[in-house]
Amino acid sequence: MTDKELKKLNRRELLEILVLQTRKTEALEKKLAALQARLDEKELKVEKAGDLARAVMELNGVFDDAKKAAEQYEENIRRMEEACRKNCEEQQAQARAQAKAIIAQAQDEADAILEKAKKK
To answer: What distance, in Å, lies between the first and last C-alpha atoms of the chain?
Structure first.
């Protein structure tokens, strides 16, 4: 509506236009508020998604560190097992050598006793 047309309207018509414009403005403000709420919600979801992605990346780092620690632990267990196995083999070899020496000594003593017995 032009300025000339507005000037020709009486007070009642102007008030009706004003009421209509106020209602439209209120409706638009409600719509704007609803859209702003939806936008805020979406921004919050995007922010949370970003936080979640960051958290996932940090967790991946934690899992990588845990995997490396587990691998190191397994490697240490293997080394300790190998050292234990070698130690056991060495102790078995020593025990066999001692057993042979004891058996040889016992055989020598038995032979000496038999020799003495034969002489008597």
So the answer is: 152
